[in-house]
User: What shape does this take?
Amino acid sequence: MKKRINWQKLLLPDFPISAISFEDRIVRVFGFNKKINKVNKVGRYVLPQGVIEEGILRKPQVLRSFLLSVKRSLWPKNKKVWVILSLPSNNFFTNIFTLPELPESQLQDAIIFNTQMVTPVPLEESYFDWEDWGSSPQEGNKEIFIAIGIKKQIQPFIDALESSGFQVVAVEPLAISLARFVGRFLDDKNPVLAINIRNDGVEFIVSEGEKVIYFDYDSWPEIFGSKIPSVITLQHLEKHLTKEIPLILNFYILKRKNEIKQFICFSENNNLVTTISNWIQNNYHLLPMQFKLPPYLKSAGRSWAPVIGAAIRGLIPRATDTIVSLAPIGTEEIYARNHFLSVLSLWLKIIMVVLASITATLGIVHYVYFQRILDNYRIALIKPLNPQTQSKYNEFRVRVKEFNDLVQAATAAQKSIQKKQQYIEEIFQEANKNSVVITRLFITKNVTIQGIAKNKAQVIKYRKALEQSSLFKQVSLPLESIVDTPEGTNFALSLEL
Assistant: This one.
């Protein structure tokens, strides 16, 4: 069967998006090279003590310096690096509820109302997103998955990354990243209990395919209080597992009317995984899952599962990624704006190269073919010409002039494209700096911009920034073109080139 060419990917390629995950002491980076069967970025780094405590960033400046060194190490030539951010799950809250089939206009309100009833954090102090999982086991209803992130705990991570040359595309709890790994590589249908034993605590995750049904992260201070043992023994872990596992198994039966029959442990310590797996199997009669990965991930240990799961999300085209993201509003717009500029710049360069090649080819043809013939005619002019030869010479001179005009037109077109590229880059760079979203752009002899900003002050600031540019003769912003709406301030602005 002949393989079809994906023209959208060829003509509008996405930025490569890697993943970065944080634990209290460990930072991991992982990235695929646009396809899942090839890995191009891998990094594991140990943070100084106290930078992150129980999933909360305590020393942002230290983390910023740390991330700058990571970027220099893995992306020395990249001005900006796009990442999926996977954070400790105790920064988040999730829930699943069912709603009857509702019109789209009513569904959003119903979701927000139900979320406000169950969330432990006010929505105005959080990042909130939801996902429609489709039909629920209850006939006539649909399942809605909601996720809430604590804004004051998530934003410092985003600020540290963005001030270090990273741009966050999406934010998700480590539990969702790990569930995606389990669903993609281990079991995409049956429920799984995943137990992730880390240096900072223990996390329990129940998943169905790539969906998170339940998670609970218990840090060592939460488990032991102020009396954390100097060495956490196997007996300590077994005691905590004895308390948590029966509750989780019973919860799942009540919630999903089904049983969990298999589990898997994740840890950097393989001996610990083997010992705990045998203990769980003997005490709860659950089957341990085999940790078998494709050849391109054969060297990845179990502790890499969450960041690999996050990196898989980076392969999803931005236009089709409907998974919950607990990031500030506008994150997707920033990506789309930069993606548009990148693609535009790429194709302008391609057009310039093609025009330059045509110009060079025409020049070579002129030199090799027409110039030689013209020289022969000039030599012949020394001799008396008969009327027929004179007529051919005049005809040839007309063709040479037409050819030279064509060369000049191609050169002028190349220069015009270069100038328009400068205009477009200046317009979008200033829009990005002033938090303005360009909705339409018309370029003829002059330029007309239609856009939206948060308020009128930002529109005025954007106009002044363009006036200070040496590229535009005049910037016109009629007062009647500024319209305040619930979504922001719409405007239309004209530039004289």
Q: What stands out?
A: Residues 434-497 form one domain. The CA atoms of residues 26 and 238 lie 24 Å apart.
